[in-house]
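User: Some background: our group keeps a shared notebook of sequences we're curious about, and every so often someone picks one and asks for a predicted structure to add to the entry. Today it's my turn. The entry only has the sequence so far, pasted here. Could you supply the structure so I can complete it?
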Amino acid sequence: MRILSRLRPDVFTLLLAATVALASLLPVTGEAAQAFALVTKAAVALLFFLHGAKLSREAVTEGLAHWRLHLVVLSLTFVLFPLMGIAFDLSFSRWINPLLGMGVLYLCLLPSTVQSSIAFTSIAGGNVAAAVCSASASNLLGVFLTPLLVALVMDVEGGGVSWSAVTGIVCQILLPFIAGQTARPWIGGFLNRHKPLTSLVDRGSILMVVYLAFSDAVAHGLWRRLDALDLVELALACAALLAAALVAATWLARRLGFSREDEIAIVFCGSKKTLASGLPMASVLFPAASVGVIVLPLMLFHQIQLMACAVLARRYADTAPDAGAPGVAGEGI
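Assistant: Of course. Here's the predicted structure to add to the notebook entry:
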């Protein structure tokens, strides 16, 4: 019975699965999707505002100065992942659809996702301040590094830098975080007394991002473009890449002597790939006729990473030294 209870999915994982099913059956599209995207952006901005208001200035300063952690995350994102993508391309390109193979390689060249990395770090009880700095830096650098890596590794002509991605990161993440830091003297105490509020925003923003992302994938013909075999092959490839990244991040963090909180930030920031930046960059870097198929691996990887990391975050939270204390991260919504 104890083994079964450990295998039983928690409420948040079930909500994620239900969100994916809902997006598959009733995807949000058209003007409704645009409106929902605005609400989702507002929820993400609120998340970073609350994180800014909750974190002390000392914690933020420590996060900015944590250069060893940031260097590890950037190495995982822009060195290990591209090497894994090249190895996959050399080993399996003859057995997979060429455009899907390009898509797998492309997702390996992308920066880390931001909101879910930080939300999962918070849920797991990790170093949120370092995660905010590291994930944001990955996305800002990725705007420049990803087109460069695509040109070098994939030999794609053209391309460019999406300045809208830069302004989006600044407006949706950094400015709310700074505003939260500014408001901390007035609302910091309230948030410390009502910790489930931040936890609710963490989980709620992830569910909204999942629904919006998967709705977009379904609206672009996810299930029409893939047959069962293609889906199985892609799922196995994406799961293998994610598993390798998670193992490498965990091993490297422990090998280098990072604390448990820092290990959590490294694992969640160094193992993910961004859908929000990856889709618009793909439309610039690749011919329009092939973009739809090339981004399918990214769409699938995005869903797998959210589901897997939700389980992993809950495991970290449940095994924390103070996991039994009331109000800690990891409780159900």
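Suggested note for the entry: The longest helix spans residues 163-193. The chain is about 80% helix and 0% strand.
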